[in-house]
Amino acid sequence: MGAVFVRYSDGGTPDRVIDVLDLLPNESAEAGLRRIFAARTKKSVASKCKLVPYEEPSPRPDVKRYTFVPKVRPPLHPDEVPDPPCGPWGDAPDGIQYFEVHPAARKVLFVRAGQDEPLFDEQTLRLFTPAK
Q: N or C of the chain: less Cβ packing under 10 Å?
């Protein structure tokens, strides 16, 4: 697994903004996303979540975005931001994060764009298949 980090000018440890995750041989992207999510999420949380297309589709028609949301939406309280109901690898109520699937790639991305304008252009990320 590879990753891209950002280090903000106010110091501190770098924040992970993109994870590059491997698919298994002959594994579909959707099956791989479910496997990756289940491996990184408490079983009691993961069992209550489902894979869905991300609400804001990619501007590139060949790239698909997905997230994990609760099978049953919990009630929202207007004055508080809840914890992510599907854990850190699921939908985030106070930020933008999603899985991204590129055609013919044997890897997927987990993108954490953040709350505001990201410091990187998440609209143009590319995964390339190496030439043989």
A: C
**Could you tell me which residues come within 8 angstroms of residue 39 by beta carbon, excluding any fewer than 6 positions away?**
none
Give the other-Cβ count within 10 Å of 19's Cβ.
Answer: 19
Report the distance separating Cα 85 and Cα 89, nearest Å.
Answer: 10
Evaluate whether 91 touches 69 at the Cβ level (below 8 Å): yes
Residues whose CB falls within 8 Å of the CB of residue 97, separated by 6 or more in sequence, listed in order: 67, 91, 110, 111, 112, 113
In the chain, at which residue ranges do the beta strands (DSSP E only) sit?
A: 2-6, 15-22, 49-53, 64-70, 96-101, 107-114
In angstroms, the Cα distances linking 58 to 22, 27, 39, 106, 122 are: 21, 22, 25, 19, 10
Torsion of CA 85, 88, 93, 95, to 10 degrees: -170
2: pLDDT strictly greater than 70: yes
pLDDT on residue 118: 67
Mean pLDDT to the nearest integer, 43-72: 92
CB 96 within 8 A of CB 115: yes
